[in-house]
Amino acid sequence: MPSDSLDALNAGLAGRYRIERKIGSGGMATVYLAEDLKHQRKVAVKVLLPQLASALGPDRFLREIAIAANLNHPHILALHDSGEIAVGSGDQSARLLFYVMPYITGESLRQRLAREKQLSIEETVRITRQVAAALDYAHGRGVIHRDIKPENILLHEGEAMVADFGIALAVTVASDIRLTGTGVSIGTSEYMSPEQAMGEGHLDSRSDIYSLGCVLFEMLAGEPPYTGPTALAVLAKRLTDPVPSVRRLRSTVSPVVEQALQKALAQAPADRFDSARAFADALSQPLPGKAARRAIAVLPFVNLTADPENEYFADGMTEDVIAQLAKIRNLKVISRTSVMQFKKREQSLREIAGLLEASTMLEGSVRRAGNRVRIVAQLIDADNDQHLWAETYDRDITDVFAIQSDVALQIAAALQAELSPDERARIRKEPTSDLRAYQLYLQGRHSVIRYTPESVRKGIELFRQSIARDPNYALAYTALAQVYTELAETGMMSPEEAYPAARDAVANALRIDPELGDAHGTSAFVKFVFEFDWIGAERGFQRALELNPNGADIYDLYGRLCSALGRFDDGITMQQRAYELDPIAHRTDIANAYLRAGRYDEALQAASRATDLDPGYSRAHSTLGWALIKKGRVSEGLGQLELAVRMSAGEPLFSAQLGQAYAETGQPARAREILRELEERASRAFVSPYSLAYVHTGLGEHDRAMDYLERAYRERTGAVYGIKGSFLFAPLRTHPRFTALLKTMNLA
Predict the structure, then answer these.
(1) pLDDT 10s digits, 389-444
(2) Residues β-bridged to residue 18
(3) Cβ atoms of 630 and 595 closer than 8 Å
(4) How far apart are CA 184 and CA 178, in angstroms?
(5) Torsional sign, CA 127, 133, 136, 141
(6) pLDDT value, residue 170
(7) DSSP state at residue 470
(8) 607 burial via Cβ count (<10 Å: 0-12, 13-18, 19+)
(9) Which stretch of DSSP H or E encloses residue 36?
């Protein structure tokens, strides 16, 4: 007769319990539904597997399991009884160990998850807090569960009950031998703490906290944090992979829960919560120091590779991490232009944070060796130098996009920034599957940034090579379009040639990826500076900011559109936002916005800050010059305009504005001298007619000024789109030809 047959068990338990049926089995016991004959109640009788019972022996097992009988907590399933029974006879006789617990009419958490896979966040937190309360009570009495898993959490009338409390401890303590020889394992691989999986003899409460963290993760995500075909595979992941982010799988999980879970699942016990109560409290209380919208600056990643040619890769990592973070509306992300000023860092982190107006800083380094890349990143609170998050990625270079996405998501979690499902999806999306195309794209960006005629030409060629490798590389098309718009604006290429090229490139980008914010921004810019489609451009900017809420350049261009339409307050609002996100690059633009609005005190203040920050920036000195003139400080203002001309080596735009200022301040001879120089230069090289219109406007030669403005419109050269809102062309506003030109440009 089999030792575990109902008849054999009933014979062994005669007078105490009557076994009705088998209701389950696990790694250590078989479970039966039984009637408690003395108390006339249903109970669950758990009979240890024979090989386990033989290894333990009854005396020590019963002595240790008695500890669990003293646990009395509303979320702990009580231990009613335990003992030893003899079943069978002769060669088939055996002595079995059993223990008795209440029979719960509900279901186990495992059964619930098998049916629903995921639970609501509210119920998940409630169950976890109840289990944590049970653990905290037991831990206070020196009892560690050692086998927290969904099978051992029962759900009864809306309450969580922890079962098998003390059985794993009893098995471990009572046995003088390792149980691997019996084929029985203590604990379940998907929920074991690293120290338990490694076979460490002494476990404390933090091991149970880790296991509960695994259960919490599964309730939210539908699977444990680490899975694999074998227990060894799970252990390998647990010991080598970073703690996974549950918000990648379920974006509605709050940052508070995510951060508590990350701490509970820390590999080192010392990095976990000190108590189960602390874990429970962390699930429902926001962490101190949370800002509504944390400002983060990503400092240039340091290239640790001996080959300086890999500098482009380190810069690319910096820019792409910024781009990923910029998609998160609940973060304020300082733009690339500003942070790159600190590539050769001389200031302290706190000083840089002050200049960039950032509360947190991300530092990183990149080391490449063949097809391997090692990236180290750490997030630091700028106020107190506290490390908020750190990670080392040692991967194949093909994982670079996954690393960038992971860094962005981990930072969002560390800063408690809520992410929408759409934001999370955009962050996870890989821009290309062709690594060589990505490298060509990075090299193109690195080349264009140097901004010489040769480097720009090389950059365009590299972008085209990248597109040839991957015709569906939307970012490469967008970068190409942005280069062409810059060439048109600066006069390095004919606008009639450059803007259509930009329009075609960005159209391809949007065809491939309609959710690329920078592409929408570039398309909108072309619409208003080349096509004068103001309504379409505004819609494009609005869509761009929905997709890229931290796009400093998008805000800047949108601000230009508003100012061009005479909506100066809107323009200032947009420029202020651009300034917040890119405080170095856009200081001059906000000053210009104030100038156009006639707010000269604020213009003077903003322009002064810009020149203090970058004394060699000619455009900032030119803006400061006009602000001083408008404030009646003519001599100082002319001095600043003259300085701008010298700094720019006589760039026609600055020379023309100086000529206009001379004319308007009673020095027409000096204005005509500049005009002659510009006309002579135009006979041998390109000079925008838009610049020449400045000087003629200052001299009062309005018809001649209109000749040049009409030509600038036809050729789409210079900032002709801004003539309606420009204070420099204010004297022309009553001229019939000016009014007609505004009508032609859809600005009337």
Answers:
(1) 989 999 898 899 999 999 999 999 888 888 888 889 999 999 999 999 999 999 99
(2) 35
(3) yes
(4) 10
(5) negative
(6) 60
(7) -
(8) buried
(9) strand 29-36
Which amino acid, 641?
L
Strand partners, 332: 295
Give residue 705's pLDDT band: very low, low, confident or very high (50, 70, 90). Answer: very high
Return the active site residues.
Answer: 147
Q: How many Cα atoms within 13 Å fall on the side-chain side of residue 484?
A: 27
- Identify the CA nearest to 466 among candidates 451, 454, 483: 483
Q: Which helix (H) or strand (E) covers residue 440, if one does? A: helix 435-449
Report yes or no: 481 and 519 within 8 Å, Cβ to Cβ. Answer: yes
HSE-CB at 426 with a 13 A cutoff on CA atoms is 24
Tell me the Ramachandran region of residue 744: left when phi exceeds 0, alpha when psi lies from -120 to 50, beta otherwise. alpha
Lookup result for tokens 């927290």: 148
Structure token pair of residue 71: 């646990």
Q: What angle, rounded to 10 degrees, do the helices at 552-564 and 568-581 form?
A: 160
Cα–Cα distance measured from residue 141 to residue 79, given in angstroms and rounded to the nearest whole number = 16
Q: 406: which residues sit within 8 A by CB, 6+ positions away? A: 242, 245, 391, 393
Token pair belonging to 12: 């062994």
| The pLDDT of residue 409 | 92
Sheet holding 29-36, edge to edge: 17-25, 29-36, 41-48, 94-102, 81-87
Mean pLDDT estimate for the chain: 88
Residue 55 in contact with residue 64, Cβ under 8 Å? no
Instruction: List CB contacts of 285: < 8 A, sequence separation 6 or more.
Output: 256
Q: Report the candidate in 742, 218, 295 with the shortest Cα–Cα distance to residue 550.
A: 295
